[in-house]
């Protein structure tokens, strides 16, 4: 379980294909605190640490993960949002995030907003995921508040701190991001669907 509060930006140092798997090596300042088998969120995708060497560690994404997330578009030197799993008893500063990406979205607009930025994303609404105004959404692992909720899209307002300390500062129109919709909203939507 994660909170969507990004701890660190990692840099992709190596990408190695092995059959349908992708081994992703990342350099980060938290590497020395990691251990093998630990879960770490990478742009919102929960992956297991499989190797550690000096300041780099490696995780493996399987075909299912690559098919449903934006990890298959990673390149060497890309910035990746990192968060370690939360500890029991810690404050939940963001919202409850599982690290299970529901689908991807495409950035369709970026506006300066007098000291902040508003990013707009569109997603495939046929997958039955929903946002609500002022609800929670996770974009590339970052816990954010929805503004301008629509059937197939939404916007988020990004403060300077978030812009500077996550990979939001690398997003452009057309960039594909990972989305995890609010877990409580997903259960409510499923219950309503079952009771039709």
Describe the structure.
The protein has 196 residues and is mostly beta strands. The protein contains three helices and twelve strands. It has helices at 63-68, 160-165, 183-194, and strands spanning 8-18, 21-27, 39-42, 45-53, 56-61, 79-84, 103-112, 117-123, 136-139, 142-150, 153-158, 176-181. It has a six-stranded antiparallel beta barrel. Strands 7-8-11-10-9-12 form a six-stranded antiparallel barrel. Strand 9 (136-139) and strand 10 (142-150) form a beta hairpin. The longest helix has 12 residues, at 183-194. The radius of gyration is 16 Å and the shape is globular. The two termini are 31 Å apart.
Write the layout of secondary structure elements.
Elements: E1 8-18, E2 21-27, E3 39-42, E4 45-53, E5 56-61, H1 63-68, E6 79-84, E7 103-112, E8 117-123, E9 136-139, E10 142-150, E11 153-158, H2 160-165, E12 176-181, H3 183-194
Antiparallel strand pairs: 1-2, 1-6, 2-5, 3-4, 3-6, 4-5, 7-8, 7-12, 8-11, 9-10, 9-12, 10-11
């Amino acid at each position: 379980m994660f909170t969507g509060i990004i701890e660190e930006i990692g840099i992709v140092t190596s990408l190695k294909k092995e059959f349908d798997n992708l081994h992703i090596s990342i350099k980060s300042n938290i590497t020395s605190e990691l251990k093998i088998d630990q879960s770490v969120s990478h742009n919102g995708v929960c992956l297991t640490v499989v190797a550690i060497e000096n300041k780099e560690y490696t995780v493996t994404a399987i075909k299912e993960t690559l098919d449903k997330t934006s990890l298959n578009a990673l390149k060497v030197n890309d910035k990746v949002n990192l968060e370690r799993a939360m500890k029991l008893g810690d404050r939940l500063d963001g919202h409850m995030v599982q690290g299970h990406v529901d689908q991807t979205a495409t950035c369709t607009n970026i506006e300066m907003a007098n000291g902040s930025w508003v990013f707009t994303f569109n997603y495939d609404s046929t997958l039955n995921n929903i946002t609500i105004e002022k609800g929670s959404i996770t974009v590339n692992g970052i816990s954010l508040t929805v503004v301008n909720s629509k059937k197939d899209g939404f916007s988020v307002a990004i403060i300077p701190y978030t812009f500077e300390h996550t990979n939001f500062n690398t997003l452009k129109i057309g960039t594909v991001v990972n989305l995890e919709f609010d877990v409580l909203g997903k259960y409510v939507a499923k219950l309503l669907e079952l009771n039709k």
